[in-house]
Structures are given as structure tokens and as C-alpha cells.
Specification:
alpha/beta; Aspartate Aminotransferase, domain 1; Aspartate Aminotransferase, domain 2; 2 domains; four-stranded antiparallel sheet
Length: 394
């Protein structure tokens, strides 16, 4: 007879193992709006946050808050039903049309979150007997979407085009889908999208691009990584999130009209969930205007990125190559990365340590994120503190 295991004791033991390996995660309570000058419930003084994905500084933008306020008065608090029942409002429709125009696509579909978009799109396009080809460091939502599809899940080494080409050529799957982040969230590098699209077209595959971290930042007027490379193709399916550079909440998928109509009918995470509050769509329409008019914000952000990279001279830690606001500093050991994060915290700088399984084992890092809302002085302070902490640990 199998020995009885108390499930609560098992969970407690598992939490102890997470503690011992430096992998237990804990939340911090923020008591101010999303902004660089932040206050936390667990510390007395202010702290400068270098961890938010609010790339353009729009999360606390008064114009967006006012648009949401007006939207709440016009539409109320909730949508009341799924989009396919009675929860699709005129402002949702206006948002989808605006997103399609902004990204240069035929049509767009608004999802409640980026995670829901990815786990909805992939199973709707491919299934058993088909094949998904995925970059090995893709976001977890792309991994989960692939597993939910029940298609063969084929991973290729990070940005290794030759390996991907070999796997595509060897596949006999009737339907093929290549999936990649546009900007990789933990490394900050940009996927080689022109070459990926060429492979997709050569092998009659779809190319799904998750541009969570490029939308609003890259390309003319912040139109994203496809615009950054000047790409257009009927094989492209574009996913962008609206809770990062757009400063609010939600996500969208854009592409050929037939593709979007198919997803509307087949993406389970779209069909079987209550529509997002319509007041958020009002805020997002204002956010899109600010993104489109945001060249000055993007110029300041790019200047901060250049200043940070030029100023940070590290001897033992590794600053990964990145031209995006995501600037990872790899330390390696989990406990060491936590210690540096805590030392930065003591200096009034909030930079979380990112550890496995979010990043590969042995590559624990500081994920530094810059925003157009940061000042030059704040970035210089971070550079000086990082260099001093590295020297002190030599």
C-alpha cells in the first residue's frame, strides 16, 4: 500500500526547498501610482523603481485616467457578458479598428490579457498532427499556448535560424506555426524577424510575433517591431499587449481579416470570458494617441538607454547586449543576485532579481527596465551604485 502523504506538509516542504535554493517569490505592496518615484508598504522611505514595464511613462498619465473616468460615466463599470453575447460595446469596436489601422493590419481582436491572447491563438490555428516551432526563450504564455494546442512542440536554440530551418525542412506537419517574442522579455534583444518571416514564407508556415515589449517603443510612432523592420505579409499574426507601453490593460491580436474572424470563432480564451470593462477601451484610445504622438518620449528613453550602456563598466557581472529598455545584468548565482537586489534596495533603488525558471539555471540576473519617466540623474545614480556594489563584492 502506498504511503499516505499529507498534501499540506508536501507543500510546506516544497516552499522550504524554494527558500533553500533562493527561488521563493514574494510580492511587494506599492502604495503610490506606477511611477519611478515609488513608495512601498515594507520600507519607510521612497525608492526609485527600475522594474516596471511602463516604458513610456503612461501608466499614471492624467489624460488616460481622465479618459477612463469619462468612460466609466458613459459605459458603467463592467461589460456584463462575453463579447459574443452582449459584452461587445461600440468603444470596443472603435478600439479594435484603431489598433488595426495603427499596426497596418486588416483587423484586430481585443483580449483581456496577453496571456489569454497567446493561449487562445495557438490552439485555434494548429492542433494534433501539426507543428509549432518556438524560440527556446519565448515567454511562458507562448509555451503554454503551444502545449494547449496539442501540436508537436519543436523548440530551437535562441535566435538560431539555421537550426529552425533544419527543423522546418524535416517536418511533415500539414500546418506549421513559428512563434517568437518580438523583444525577448528577459534578455532585451530583438528577434531576427525578417529572416523568420522569410522562413515562414518558404515553408508555408504562420509566423506569430508576441510584441509585448516592442509595441509603443519600436518602429515609427511606436507601431512595434514589424514596423521597426518594415515587414508585411499575409503569414504574419501580430500580438501586442496594452499593459506595458500603453500604460493600461489588455492585449490584441492583429492580422488578415479572415484570420481574425477565425480567432473570434475559435479562440476559447476570447469566447468564454467576460469582455473587458468598456471604460478601459476609452482609456486605450487615448493611450494610442499618446503613443502615436510620443516621439519625444521615445527619444528621451533611447537617450537614457544609450547613457546607461555607455556609463556602466562592469568587470565580473555581464550586461547583455540590448538596444531596448530591458537592460539585464547577469550575476549567475541565485543567492548572489538576491543579495545585490537587496543591496540596491537599501540604496533606494528597486531592481528585482530574476531567477530560474524564468531564466536558465546559472543565469540569475537583475532585470533593469528604463522608462521615459526616468530622469538622467536617476539613471546615473543607478550606474554609480551598480559599479560600487560590484567593486565591493570583488
Amino acid at each position: 500500500m502506498a504511503e499516505h502523504i499529507d498534501p499540506l506538509d508536501e507543500l510546506r516542504a516544497g516552499l522550504g526547498e524554494l527558500d533553500a535554493s533562493g527561488l521563493r517569490r514574494r510580492r511587494r505592496i506599492v502604495t503610490t501610482p506606477c511611477q519611478p518615484d515609488t513608495r512601498l508598504a515594507d520600507r519607510a522611505g521612497p525608492i526609485v523603481a527600475f522594474c516596471s514595464n511602463d516604458y513610456l511613462g503612461l501608466a499614471a498619465e492624467p489624460a488616460i485616467a481622465e479618459a477612463v473616468r469619462r468612460g466609466s460615466l458613459r459605459w458603467g463599470s463592467g461589460s456584463g457578458a462575453s463579447h459574443l453575447v452582449s459584452g461587445h460595446y461600440a468603444v470596443h469596436e472603435a478600439l479594435e479598428q484603431r489598433l488595426a489601422t495603427f499596426t497596418g493590419m486588416d483587423a484586430a481582436l481585443y483580449f483581456s490579457t496577453g496571456y489569454m491572447a497567446n493561449i487562445g491563438v495557438m490552439p485555434a490555428l494548429v492542433g494534433r498532427g501539426d507543428a509549432i516551432f518556438a524560440d527556446k526563450v519565448n515567454h511562458a504564455s507562448l509555451v503554454d499556448g503551444a502545449l494547449l494546442s496539442r501540436a508537436e512542440f519543436i523548440r530551437y536554440p535562441h535566435c538560431d535560424l539555421a537550426a529552425l530551418e533544419g527543423r522546418l525542412a524535416a517536418s511533415r506537419a500539414p500546418r506549421k506555426l513559428i512563434v517568437t517574442d518580438g523583444v525577448f522579455s528577459m534578455d532585451g534583444d530583438i528577434a531576427p524577424l525578417p529572416q523568420l518571416l522569410a522562413l515562414a514564407e518558404a515553408h508555408q508556415a504562420w509566423l506569430l510575433v508576441d510584441d509585448a515589449h516592442g509595441f509603443g517603443v519600436l518602429g515609427p510612432q511606436g507601431r512595434g517591431c514589424l514596423a521597426h523592420f518594415g515587414l508585411a505579409s499575409p503569414r504574419l499574426i501580430y500580438m501586442g499587449t496594452l499593459g506595458k507601453a500603453a500604460g493600461l490593460s489588455g492585449a490584441f491580436v492583429a492580422g488578415q481579416r479572415d484570420v481574425i474572424d477565425w480567432l473570434l470563432n475559435k479562440a476559447r480564451s476570447y469566447i468564454f470570458t467576460t469582455g473587458a470593462p468598456p471604460m478601459l477601451a476609452d482609456g486605450l484610445l487615448t493611450a494610442l494617441d499618446l503613443i502615436e504622438q510620443g516621439d519625444e518620449r521615445r527619444a528621451h528613453l533611447n537617450a537614457l538607454i544609450a547613457r546607461f550602456r555607455a556609463g556602466l563598466g562592469l568587470r565580473r557581472w555581464q550586461l547583455l547586449p540590448s538596444e531596448t529598455p530591458i537592460q539585464p545584468v547577469v550575476i549567475g548565482d541565485n543567492h548572489a543576485a538576491l543579495a545585490v537586489s537587496q543591496a540596491l534596495d537599501a540604496e533606494g533603488l528597486w531592481v528585482p532579481a530574476i531567477r530560474p525558471p524564468t531564466v536558465p539555471k546559472g543565469s540569475a540576473r537583475l532585470r533593469i527596465v528604463l522608462s521615459a519617466a526616468h530622469s538622467i540623474e536617476q539613471v546615473d545614480r543607478l550606474v554609480d551604485t551598480l559599479q560600487r556594489l560590484e567593486a565591493a563584492q570583488a
